[in-house]
Amino acid sequence: MTAVSSGYATQLMARAGDLRWEYPFGCSFPGYYALMASAHMAEFGTTPEMLSSIGVKNHHYGAMNPNAHIQKEVSLEDAMSAVQIASPLNLYDCSLISDGAAAVLVTKESIAKNFTDTPIFIRGIGSGSDTMQMSRRESMTGLAGARRAAQIAYEMAGITPADVDIAEVHDCFTIAEIMALEDLGFYEPGQAGPASLDQQLYIGGKIPTNVDGGLKAKGHPLGATGVSQAVEIRKHLLGENGKRQVDGAEIGLSHNVGQTGQFVNVVIYDR
Fold it and tell me: Is 153 domain-assigned?
């Protein structure tokens, strides 16, 4: 990712959008998610402070993660006053262009026990999709594919959102984390932003989310992003996460998005 300029990397990633009606007219991922943020603000009263609070939280945990791309704290004041990228999103609302790798071994239980006495189990998995063109979607305040993927995964696992102890969600932008928490059923539409201000997404809160720093601070190495979420969940379920451990975590959830929500996967894990 970092072998090319930021501008060229942004151009390459933008090609994951609609190549006929959106990308050729200058749409890039900051622009797409700025549209979503504006819609969310207009419909629910979400504020820039709520968006910035997501970045502050993720940098807080990124500073505690030795594998994070950016290992530094950011104050709410600094986050809110950063340079604009695509209004209303500023620098601290946007994830990083990162290099990285992650790996998991997926197999059946009988084989897994040849490698470890503490396997993690996939209890539910769901996938959802949506239109290629954002302009054809029914709403821009959430991802329909994420809602479908979550419903499938919850039903397969036989649980509800209230049963989840730790979540890793695709926070390519701060508004994406807010929408994910609502799409996954942890909050009603419009309530995840206020919950972030209330620090409900921190360890000890209602639903600890992205306590590895998320894409915002840990980094976003594209192909490795979703697998790195699974690695983080595993550490929590085995109690191996040190200062960032969610005590007693038994059920974890990961949510990964392709493009601007054209594809979404949700996975539920337990031990």
Answer: yes
